[in-house]
Amino acid sequence: MKNLVLISFLSVILFQSCNAQKRELTVGDSVPKFSLKNQNDSLININDYIGKKILVIYFYPKDESMVCTKEACTFRDSATEFSKAGALVIGINSGTVESHREFQQKHNLPFILLSDPDNKVQAMFGVKNGIISDRVTFVVDLTGQIVFTFNSLIHGSEHAQKALEFIREMDSKKQGN
After folding, report:
1. Which of 22, 77, 148, 168 is most buried, most CB within 10 Å of its CB?
2. Edge-to-edge strands of the sheet including 54-59?
3. Which pLDDT belongs to residue 2?
């Protein structure tokens, strides 16, 4: 009986440690360094953009799902405002390069979509991916620090709106100094 209890206890500990989710990154954390392929099958290294643009990195569950499409189209419709604010939008999920290319072309998305097939970058950010995946947006300043996050699974269109509001606020504070 003691052995059965011990085996059960060790199984629970092992299961919990294997399924432990790294904490989601938050304001003040540095953006993880990563490279992924974009919708054109080109390797994109995040280091090439840090210091040049404010980065709006958004993680979304799936190309062509209803809320994800609405979210992407809201980023698309705000592309001019993001560009004027010096920001670059990057969408990431585990979809394939081909799926991203079709999604981008069908909806005329003017930003980068990165394929993270093994969910490694999502794990680096602490973004859950599975049966219920997270929908999280991170704003990264020119120093590579996360300065804003927004997490809402069902309010996809708010991600672009909240990120743009924050960037405008950040810019107006900078202008005021």
Report:
1. 148
2. 43-45, 35-38, 112-115, 87-93, 54-59, 136-140, 146-151
3. 54
How far is residue 80's CA from residue 18's CA, in Å, rounded to a whole number? 43
**CA–CA gap between residue 86 and residue 108 (Å, rounded):** 20
**Domains contained in the chain, CATH given:** 25-176 (3.40.30.10)
Q: What is the pLDDT averaged over residues 4-23?
A: 44
Burial bucket for residue 167 (CB in 10 Å: 0-12, 13-18, 19+): buried
Where do the H-state alpha helices sit in 19-156? 66-77, 79-84, 97-107, 120-125
The candidate with the shortest Cα–Cα distance to 116, out of 53, 32, 23, 50, is: 32
68 belongs to the catalytic site:
yes
Amino acid letter at 163? Answer: A
Q: Quick one: tokens of 127? A: 């973004």
Helix, coil or strand: residue 2: helix
CB of 95 closer than 8 Å to CB of 122: no
Give the C-alpha separation, 113 to 146, whole Å.
Answer: 19
Which residue in the list 31, 44, 55, 68 is annotated as catalytic?
68
